[in-house]
Amino acid sequence: MSDKDRLNVFPSRMALAIIKTRLKGAQKGHSLLKKKADALTLRFRMILRKIITTKTEVGEVMKTAQFSLAEAKFTCGDISLVILQNVTKAAVKVKSKKENVVGVTLPIFESYQDGGDTYELTGLARGGQQIDKAKKSYGKAITLLVELASLQTSFITLDEVIKITNRRVNAIEHVIIPKIERTLAYISSELDERDREEFYRQVKKGSRKKEKDQSPRGGNKESPNGRKGWPWRGSTKHI
Amino acid sequence: MALAAARGKLIAVIGDEDTCVGFVLGGLGEMNKNRTSNFMVVDKNTSIGEIEETFKNYLKRDDIAIILINQNVAEMIRHVIDSHDLPIPSVLEIPSKDSPYDPSKDSILRRAKGMFAAEDFR
Q1: How far apart are CA A5 and CA A63, in angstroms?
Q2: Which position has the higher pLDDT, A121 or A75?
């Protein structure tokens, strides 16, 4: 496993340096992403808390709104047909703004009044006051619901982004960094081996040279310590 | 899209008669050139297929930013609502006159549930 799961590089000093900088980069990226995830989670929890309080508030406001509509219906009969048929242009519209939280754009809705009231004359004969009251309470409900909608949109967007960020953090922590570390270990072991080889070669070269130097005078083919097969053993102290 | 954002978007309503009347009275009803409205009155004769169709049409329209839907109606087309995962238009479940609001059924609050203690939900 450890042999396969590493980067495909040639083991050299330069590659070692490059991989080391990559490791540093990966660690920096990991800590930055972790910070991002923390910031997002902070925001996320704040929004969640707000959603819950607003939801309960909406329940209350809707209750009063429905009561006021019932009052209006009681005083001026069934007005629902009149209202549903006389629809022309929306008086309340939604504007969306963008808010930036650590590189994530969250849409923020804002309701605004656009054009006049279509139902100015509804309930002119009787129950006008009740209808006005119902209108006002539903208007209040709408602003609250718009606020809740923007919170909810932010909630969904943030949820998605947090998931992605956490996936990245985990990928760097559990896949990329171990891979780079394994590559580093591989390169340094290869380099060590090469060093040992080089050392052996140098020693051997030295001993050969000495043998050559000695042969015309002494003619002794054997190494100084008398052993034939390990000529470098005795001659290391001469280098 | 940018044009629609500059123009200001609409709020759509799917719900029983009283909910629709209330919100339209509040001023969010609009009839466009094709004589299609942004609200739908659901009564006991409305089929689930019709509601689903309307809801999907509202999701497709780019001039709608928020869809308000009664919770009992939402319960009928729950699978469609759960499969909608884009941030815009955002779907809001509101209590209706004849059924109290149940936070455990709300798709958003269900997602949020694991993160908060039970007492936060009342």
Answers
A1: 62
A2: A75
